[in-house]
Design a protein that fits this description.
The protein contains 11 helices and 10 strands. With 294 residues, it is α/β, with parallel strands linked by helices. Helix 8 crosses helix 11. The chain is globular and about 65 Å long. The protein starts with 17 loop residues before the first strand and ends with a strand.
Amino acid sequence: FSHGIKDCKSLSGIDSVIGIIGSGRVGSALGKALCKKEEAVLFYDIVESQLDSLKKESYNTTAQWDYFIDTVGTVAICVPTESLPDGSCDLSIITDVVKKLSDGWQRKWSNGLVLQVSTCPPTTARHLQEAFQPSVEYVVTPSLYNMSRMEWDALHPVKILAGTKDGSPSLRVQKIFGKFSCPIYFANYETIEITKYAHHRLSATLISFWNEIYLTATRLEVDSDWVAKIVATDPMFHSVYRFHKKAYGGPCLEKDTQALIKWADYLNPLNPLQIISSVHKVNQFMKSTFGINE
């Protein structure tokens, strides 16, 4: 299938081609994993340099929107959702993509499948899916990848989260992701959106926690690595040891932590997220003092 096809044009006639919109690190990792599961995949990006490495590896790529729309029946939206100056999530790119995709499919498809992989604040998917006609299935399937091993995580997921409008299972999602040896958890949009935030914010919390232990241990001339390893010997805490001594960085942890804080302030301004806000403050101190753990 996809990885073995050298020419994008040879994708024509293949049923259920999956299109990746946004072929950066997340999009390329997901698309490559799907290719290895014998799915036909076409990578799209408006920045052609994003496609260069994929072309060199003989993956199917295009920067031509009309060709992309004519070819694919399923689309995975993997575009960036960066932080605005106030810390909130910038939804302009994904909103534009959804509008453009909706307009294209109004003419060509009656039953497309949209997978929202990009991380967005809760309630975003419910608003975005309104752009499509009812026959188009809109499902939130956020990535849970570790930035240091993204392609491995995409190919070997521990779980798949899938948010549908009413929380009911999607047969088409099961067909695509059922090829991976992991459970698929279905729920409604908001449940999956907050689960994604909880999943990665717990990692951020643990990093900041161990950074505070590190700061305290250093003052006592104690090796915090030894402390963390001993704590992690308890089965209850075997997964709590995270890299520390520097701030967490990467394209997701910091910006998504800020976005959750901002969204929660909007949702309930009288009761801000105190723990997660403290996590962010500790990380800002570590970043300015010790730098980022790349």
